[in-house]
Amino acid sequence: MTTDLPCVSVQEVLNCSFPVWYPLFNKHSIKSVILNLTDDVLAYLRSDEFYLPTSANEAMDEMRKINADEASSENEDDDDHWSDEDDDTTKKISFPELETQIKDVLNDYDAVFPKLNWSSPKDARWMISDSRLKCTNLADVFLLLKSSDFITHDLCEPFKHCHGDHASVLSTLQYVLVLRKWSALQPFKEFRCFVKNNQIIGISQRDSENYYDFIDKTADHILDDLVQFFKAHIQNKFLSVDFVVDIYRKDSNKLYIIDFNPWGPMTDSLLFNWSELLTLSTQNTNEQPEFRYVNSQNGIRPNSYIQYAMPKDIADISRERDINMLADVLSSQIQVQNNGVDSDNEEKS
Fold this sequence. Notes:
Layout lengths: L9 H6 L2 H8 L6 E5 L2 H8 L7 H17 L5 H4 L16 H14 L2 E4 L22 H10 L1 H8 L10 H6 L3 E6 L8 E7 L2 E7 L7 H21 L9 E9 L2 E9 L11 H8 L8 E3 L19 H8 L3 H26 L1
Parallel strand pairs: 5-8
Antiparallel strand pairs: 1-3, 2-3, 4-5, 4-6, 6-7
Helix pairs in contact: 4-7, 4-13
């Protein structure tokens, strides 16, 4: 670990786990339900094989049928190529208790935004029809969880940048699935606050890849509102003294906590870099925090999720809005991969 990066403890990461912080701040955050994940679910999510639980496949079949009913007659001949017959070779698995719990939440919330203890599957957004991570059925939830490198990081190396021995902590960690009530949040209203010794020292526009005229015109008001909200509802209440918190400012009177993150290299510093934040932390903390935002079109940064872009064949289908074909392409890719895994296992046996 380089000297210009903060040193992070395992406990500081644990303090940012959703089931730890949410009970303390639920009145100032988005409605959410926390579901414990059992060992069989974790083994499935960690597995390299890509297949969905039976009920999730049924949800995809239902989407196919709905879209087929809405399709125009001129496309009927083309649809005949995509078979709706069940493939007996598809691997079967189910998690009845978890699936029932997810369905119950979906019935209450209509749509949800999923995440695990720390991360959401933003890198896999292209896997479902609504790229905003709006999940309306089991297939959406499991497709995102199973496809995301961010989720894999949570499951396999959440303490990657921490000092000290953390193997024993990882083996006893209770993983959870968090289902947050869906809300169409506007990216330009979310801000990341960097907190050192319980003082905000820096604030960054959360969507640091775009210019928003609104932020440029109201920066002073935004800064004042964020600082006041922090002092009233977060300062000296979070379990760590050094941390990062994302706040959504709907308007001057309605602000919400989105998430907490560790003060360290596992957290994106956005329009700062960590050496700058460390320097700011040694300066006078009684002054207003430094607020950085993209103040012109020239300041736009490249998309940080470009490496997680949608494969071209699936992008072409999505542009044509052929959900039936997309579902079958995904199903066929899953089957090809699983057949390959089965062949490897036969050779090893």
